[in-house]
UniProtKB/TrEMBL annotation:
Membrane protein topology class: Multi-pass membrane protein
The entry's keywords: Membrane, Transmembrane, Transmembrane helix
Annotated transmembrane regions: 82-101
Keyword check for Transmembrane helix: yes
Molecular function as annotated in GO: nitrate transmembrane transporter activity
InterPro entries named in the record: MFS_trans_sf, NO3_transporter
Protein name from the UniProt record: Major facilitator superfamily (MFS) profile domain-containing protein
Localization (cell): Membrane
GO cellular component: membrane
Length: 124
């Protein structure tokens, strides 16, 4: 360790230490680390792999539907109003889905609402 590092008390992070439990989930969060582990996003107790796939498909389908609907909405209302209406509707839908998402079907609905919110990129 250099004298400057010794004076500040800084030490380099340990090299590639896997901080995972028996199920492969991260036990500590290191957001700036580029090495493993990165925490899993799938909830092991709640979602089966097929449910996670269904949620991804629902998000993509909603993004496609929302973007196709946003084009005519921008022509009819103008981009600012259409974007504002889409933001309000999606925020309300996401809030309601987040409150009631206690099952895999609720999580799929939540991802569908999140996918709809991606239609705002059309207005910009």
């Amino acid at each position: 360790m250099s004298s400057a590092a010794a004076a500040t008390g800084w030490s380099p992070p340990p090299a590639a230490v896997d901080c995972v439990d028996a199920e492969g989930r991260a036990t500590e969060l290191r957001p700036l680390a580029l090495s493993r582990p990165h925490p899993r996003l799938r909830l092991g107790a709640l979602l089966a792999p097929s449910d996670a796939s269904a949620a991804a498909v629902a998000s993509l389908a909603a993004a496609l539907v929302g973007r196709l609907a946003m084009g005519p909405a921008c022509d009819l209302l103008g981009p600012r109003r259409a974007s504002g209406v889409a933001s309000l509707v999606c925020a309300l839908a996401l809030a309601l889905a987040a409150v009631y998402a206690s099952s895999p079907a609720g999580f799929v609905a939540l991802r569908f609402c999140a996918g709809l919110s991606l239609s705002n990129f059309v207005a910009n």
